[in-house]
Amino acid sequence: MSATQSFEQLLKEKKLTIQKIADETGVSTLALEFLIYKQHQPKPHIAQKIAKVLEMKVGEIWPELKP
After folding, report:
1. pLDDT tens digits along 49-67
2. How far apart (Å, rounded) are the C-alpha atoms in residues 49 and 25?
3. Is residue 40 within 8 Å of 61, Cβ to Cβ?
4. What is the distance between the alpha carbons of residues 21 and 67, in angstroms, rounded to a whole number?
5. Are 41 and 55 a contacting pair, CB within 8 Å?
6. Alpha-carbon distance 29 to 4, whole Å?
7. Cα angle at 49 between 21 and 33, to 5 degrees?
8. Which distant-in-sequence residues (6+ apart) come within 8 Å of 17 by Cβ?
9. Distance separating alpha carbons of residues 10 and 67, to the nearest angstrom
10. Are residues 25 and 46 in contact, defined by beta-carbon separation less than 8 angstroms?
11. Measuring CA to CA, which residue among 49, 50, 52, 47 is closest to residue 63?
12. Is the pTM value of this prediction over 0.70?
């Protein structure tokens, strides 16, 4: 399972939408959709915002970005 698939799975498990994440982080929905569609990792500051909304650590979502 890739990191992006686990991110997508986390959204489903926590019953969050891309719009909800966008509203709480200030990251555009287009950027979040691109992140999922292209299976990209976010930049560290974006990852921190998303992790805060998901109430998780960045390394739990994207192990490659572990500080």
Report:
1. 999 999 989 888 888 887 6
2. 6
3. no
4. 22
5. no
6. 15
7. 45
8. 11
9. 21
10. yes
11. 47
12. yes
Q: Contact, 10 vs 61, CB < 8 A?
A: yes
Compute the 3-state secondary structure of the chain and give helix, strand, coil in percent, each to the nearest 5. Answer: 70, 0, 30
Q: What is the 3-state secondary structure (H, E, C) of 21-52?
A: HHHHHCCCHHHHHHHHHCCCCCCHHHHHHHHH
Sole residue written with tokens 């990209």: 40
The pair of three-digit structure tokens given for residue 35, joined into one six-digit string: 């992140």
Measured distance CA(42)–CA(36) in Å, rounded? 10
